[in-house]
Write a structure and sequence with these properties.
single chain, about 210 residues, mainly alpha, 7 helices
Length: about 210
């Protein structure tokens, strides 16, 4: 069985990486860099806001899931992540893949955690229509996901024999991502581990 080859994190020798990274950075669209980093910022900011809220530091007397400015802010971050950031990462990663820039690997790597936290920010907020918005966002992500599976497969069919193995990496990554989506969505809906974690923090430190 093939496994997706995530190369993010830098596993190359320093001398090779210096020359290659400079060349790749020149080819990376600035929009790709900014889009990924801003998306990561949204994800981390939401988690910090929930943690501080449940520790009674922000909006004392409330917690994530009970309406407050913190819950509303995290809910908004969930909307941005699921409706904007994730589709952007798909479009941008495929663009970089076609350009044979390895930055696509880092972008696709972040899609799954974005989906996990973005969906939790929507589902866990318990704001009116949050469940409806979560379902709509999952449908949109699924449509975008399968669109790029088809696009990458068509691109693969047009590849030369020499480039076939290299071009298969993106398609293989998206196939595995399909399985991860199904598992993760089930975990969120039936176990909701992040919600249990933040509830444990709230009850342990404040007994509420």
């Amino acid at each position: 069985m093939e496994t997706p080859e995530f190369k993010s994190g830098g596993m190359e020798l320093p001398g090779i990486m210096n020359n290659r990274s400079v060349e790749e950075m020149r080819r990376i669209d600035q929009r790709s860099l900014v889009g990924l980093y801003v998306s990561e910022l949204f994800l981390i900011s939401g988690a910090i806001l929930i943690l501080l809220n449940n520790l009674n530091v922000l909006a004392p007397g409330t917690y994530f899931g009970k309406f407050s400015w913190v819950t509303a802010t995290v809910f908004s971050l969930g909307i941005i992540i699921n409706f904007v950031s994730i589709p952007f990462l798909y479009f941008s990663s495929f663009k970089n893949f076609v350009k044979e820039n390895d930055f696509w690997d880092k972008q696709t790597f972040w899609i799954l955690p974005m989906f996990f936290f973005g969906t939790f920010y929507l589902y866990g907020s318990e704001i009116s229509y949050s469940l409806v918005l979560m379902i709509v966002s999952v449908i949109i992500i699924a449509v975008v996901h399968f669109k790029f599976i088809l696009s990458s497969h068509e691109f693969l069919l047009r590849s030369s024999d020499e480039a076939l193995m290299r071009h298969q990496q993106y398609f293989t990554s998206l196939k595995y991502l399909t399985l991860y989506y199904v598992i993760l969505l089930g975990v969120i809906m039936f176990f909701n581990p992040l919600q249990h974690l933040f509830v444990w923090i709230r009850t342990t430190f404040w007994g509420i």
